[in-house]
Amino acid sequence: MVRDWTVVNRFDGLTLPWPAVGLAKVATLKRRNHVTPNMRSSTVSTVSFLICLSSLASLATASGQLAPIGKPPFTEPLEKYNNPPAPPRTIETSPRMISQFGVFTSYQANVDANGNNILGDAANEPSISVDPTNLNKMVISWRQFNSIQSDFRQAGWGYTTDGGMHWTFPGVLENNVFRSDPVSHCDETGNFFYLSLRSDQSQSFFCDDVWKSINGGQSWTQGGPGHGGDKEWFTIDKTGGPGHGFQYQFWTGFFSCDGGQFSRSTDGGGVNWQTPINLPNSPQWGTLDVDTNGNLFLGGESNQFWCLRSSNAQIGNQTPTFDRVTPVNMGGDLTQGGIKGIGLCGQAFLAVDRSGGATNNNVYMLASVVPPGRSTTDVMFVRSTDGGQTFSAPHRINDDPNFQSKWHWFGTLSVAPNARIDAVWYDTRNASNNIDSQLFYSWSTDGGLSWAPNVAVSSPFNPQAGFPNNQKIGDYITVVSDNTGANVAYAATYNVNPNAVGGHEQDVYYVRVSPSGGGTPTPTPTATSTPTSTPTATATATATATATATATPTATATASATTTPTATPTPTPTLTPRPTPTPRSSSTPRGRPTPPPRP
Fold first, then answer.
1. Residues 195-211: tens digit of each pLDDT
2. Edge-to-edge strand list for the sheet holding 30-31
3. Selected residue with higher pLDDT from 70 and 318
4. What residue ranges in 241-375 does DSSP mark as E strands?
5. 3-state class of 25 per DSSP?
6. In Å, what is the CA distance from 583 to each residue of 351, 471, 485, 586?
7. Which residues pair with 212 in a beta bridge?
8. Phi, psi (deg, nearest 5) at residue 302
9. Fewest CB within 10 angstroms: 87, 104, 317, 436, which?
10. Which DSSP helix (H) or strand (E) runs through 123?
11. Peptide bond connecting 19 to the previous residue in cis, omega within 30 degrees of 0
């Protein structure tokens, strides 16, 4: 497959041009006669496996195709139980991928027990969380496809103890259980939590549960059912108020488990969840956060974007109500299709500043949206300085001059403890085919008034390659900030596999980004509009593994792509780098109530 960029891969100590890498990998594929239980052993021959993959690749619409775009309301769930688990197969491996781009190093996370790439699987939709008591400890959760012959997905995860240079992939939460929409979080004491959607073939709806790890993500204990529904998300109250430790989640009400759109757990572990309630205006495809006063904020889109506040969700003996409901102009709408094929081109992300400084309790929202009259997406940002009563006019973060025709998708943000805002997204500005994407980064040190010049932090990749039958690379990526930089989990297709769709595999990567060098953006404050606010009314242990190493990178943004492989099957991988730069400013389920009217 011809690419419009030059990439150099490091393979087994040799530097080879991109086309040669595929041949080198094929020549050195390792045959495994046995596989760990999580990956399932097989007597299927390698030849049969490759023939199946070749057939799959020939059916691919990947490479160069754009799907029609769709705007809300979306009329079908973003998750479907389409295929049974993939048949058993022999597992083969290639070296894991370490992709270098300038000073930024991306490490593959979905690797086997020996730290190698697993051939013929797929992983996407990663959610990263970081232990605030030890920033070297992180967890990434993702959708795991044991074979691209089936879009049957499971709850995969990896953990690191060395800042992301090496990852351990112990397997999946439950073997042969359909799971999706993974979201991970860590509380202020270092306990990790994993929210997972689950279903089975007999269900036309989706329920979820929360799993807890007290050993850095090495093993997990299953909590109680969390109700839930398609595209669920959750957050944890880490303040010192009455809601400390409470967990809050919301989901798409039309595709819910047993009704409602929002639930709360007050037991500090996500074990017991209260009866779901409906949300004013039914926002969905969004996220939540808590301010320093314990107020819960929730952002999403239905007929338009909304920011909801609940000041009493933190009171355990009261049913949460949302006393502030504010329409938000994000400069466009969420979309599905387009460069994605199917699924969202990104969610709405909401984050609250808890720095204790001048911007404390600012509420920020960011989303990749299609502006009116356009057919491609921009990364748009708004802020509220008055507790969600009003929001600024939308500010475009992607700064390319040819933005009208390019894709800026999967935008997401995070706020550092020192108030810096970090934003990352996929971007096609450098691609002549307008499909090959790079991870881009920008940051703000003045509460979002100005943003640093955009920096490419990854090599280009084809997002339409490597997917299983469901033909997408997930619906989101995620980022978690600290005072010196940010930790990003994203999906990309750097690994070469001539038998995979588009000739590449879909894997999960970790990269450390930081502001570095360059000028300071000129503050250009955005106007503030005034929207109206309206009140309204146990246990299953799982795999263990080990990883150790330490790395501390330093960043300076420049383009220069290099890649280095390394990988294998089973739960136990390795990976992780981290640069340190400096900023420049600037269906209808049973028992479910009738869904609220959708626009």
1. 999 987 666 568 999 99
2. 30-31, 92-95, 116-118
3. 318
4. 247-250, 262-265, 284-290, 296-301, 305-310, 324-328, 336-338, 348-352, 363-369
5. helix
6. 19, 37, 9, 9
7. 193, 221
8. -130, -100
9. 317
10. strand 122-130
11. no
